[in-house]
Design brief:
By secondary structure, the protein is mainly β. Helices cover 0% and strands 40% of the residues. It contains no helices and 13 strands. 25% of the residues are buried.
């Protein structure tokens, strides 16, 4: 989930929260791809834009916004291939006091069959909002970890035995048992 919250008693402007999906070309152990548009978008004036570009996000407390008005960014109606999206941003012109803008990013691991249980990748996120007073901007860079989990599958193979020796060597399926 991407979100930015204004817990103060002052209004902020130019609120934005971004996430760069993990990519092997960016040094991660697996790729994550978007499977569709951001879900459960919340917050007055919240709008989502998408980019195929892998953005290098500003550092923590840099007080720098990302320009979300360039041609790198498109809205949901302009996306033809969700798996090509590399960076997602939720933005709002205003972030009123005691409010949040947020949304869930639907992702999956690309080529999951090649990923190993326990592997991790980094999802980089950045949030920014401009304060009404000089020096009151919010900016936060957070690195989240995605990890491959799995349930071990155990295959049991048995042969029916008679007096501790195999019968005729045939393996009996469960419906053949009496």
């Amino acid at each position: 989930m991407l979100s930015i919250t204004n817990g103060s008693n002052k209004e902020y402007t130019n609120a934005q929260t971004l996430a760069v999906l993990p990519q092997k070309t960016n040094g991660d152990t697996f790729d994550m791809v978007l499977t569709g548009p951001v879900l459960n978008l919340l917050g007055a004036g919240a709008h989502v834009v998408y980019s195929t570009k892998i953005y290098s996000l500003p550092k923590n407390e840099s007080n720098t916004s990302v320009d979300l008005t360039t041609s790198d960014w498109v809205d949901e109606k302009q996306v033809s291939d969700w798996s090509s999206i590399r960076t997602v941003a939720i933005k709002a012109d205003k972030l009123k006091t005691q409010t949040t803008i947020s949304g869930f990013i639907p992702v999956q691991v690309a080529k999951i069959g090649k990923a190993k249980i326990g592997e991790t990748a980094k999802l980089h996120s950045y949030s920014y909002a401009k304060g009404t007073v000089s020096g009151a901007n919010l900016s936060n860079n957070v690195e989240m970890t995605a990890q491959i989990y799995g349930i071990p599958q155990i295959t049991v193979h048995y042969e029916e035995t008679i007096n501790d020796s195999t019968s005729n060597g045939n393996i009996l399926a469960s419906e053949e048992k009496n």
